[in-house]
Amino acid sequence: MAEHMAERVAVVTGAASGIGSACVAALLNEGATVVGVDIVETAPVDRFHPSVCDVSDESAVRGLFAEIARQHGRLDAIVNVAGIQRAARVDLADVSDWDAQLAVNVRSCFLLAKYGLELLKGADNGAIVNVASVAGIKGTAGVTGYSASKGGVLAFTRSLAHEFAPHGIRVNAVSPGWTDTAFNGPVINELGGQSELDELVRTTVPLGRQGRPAEVAAAAVFLAGEAASYITGQNLVVDGGLSS
């Protein structure tokens, strides 16, 4: 087992499934201690400490970091994966869905940075990795709210990188393209079903397939680790060439 992050403590949001779960597994494999945050309860295992928390709720996030300080006394990396996706034409979309996507997808990144800062200041090579999306770069009909939220994540990442650089904290983003997780259910339904998605991927993704959560996690762990110590304010696109 590699131990490139041995003795480091990382927070991963959206840790119970999909890309978040893959990030947890990859960080554990690198030797890190991981606080896995989700609204779904999961079981603890060696070096994995689950925490139930609504990352769009300010008081809950403040309490999360107070508990991390008490239990671990340090923090080296935050990987923001938590997100929701709603799909609908603008004229049919619910305002509540728009607001929820901005709260969970963007506000959570702000809150994790705000309340994680003091602990990250004590890290050597502290890092934040925000999982955005190709939807924040490339226009797609039917997911305007999701696209707006992920574009916000990218803009926030670039500005936060400048703000946190004097503290020695790097801030980067990872933008997945089509990734084989249940998370994409709403947009698959909007497209008309799995067969339509398969055809879309075949015709628009140069590598001809969806990505795997572990492939996105590998990019996130790279940006959180020592090998990326001179990289900040960047967006690493993991999309099989879709946006090229």
UniProtKB/TrEMBL annotation:
Source domain of life: Bacteria
InterPro entries per the UniProt record, alphabetical: KR_dom, NAD(P)-bd_dom_sf, Sc_DH/Rdtase_CS, SDR_fam
Keyword Repeat: no
Keyword S-adenosyl-L-methionine: no
Enzyme class of the recorded protein, top EC level: oxidoreductase
Sequence ranges assigned to domain Ketoreductase in this UniProt record: 8-181
Keyword entries, A-Z: Oxidoreductase
Record-listed E.C. numbers: 1.1.-.-
PANTHER family: 3-OXOACYL-[ACYL-CARRIER-PROTEIN] REDUCTASE (PTHR42760:SF133), SHORT-CHAIN DEHYDROGENASES/REDUCTASES FAMILY MEMBER (PTHR42760)
Protein name per UniProt: SDR family oxidoreductase
Natural source organism: Gordonia prachuapensis
Taxonomic lineage from the root: Bacteria, Bacillati, Actinomycetota, Actinomycetes, Mycobacteriales
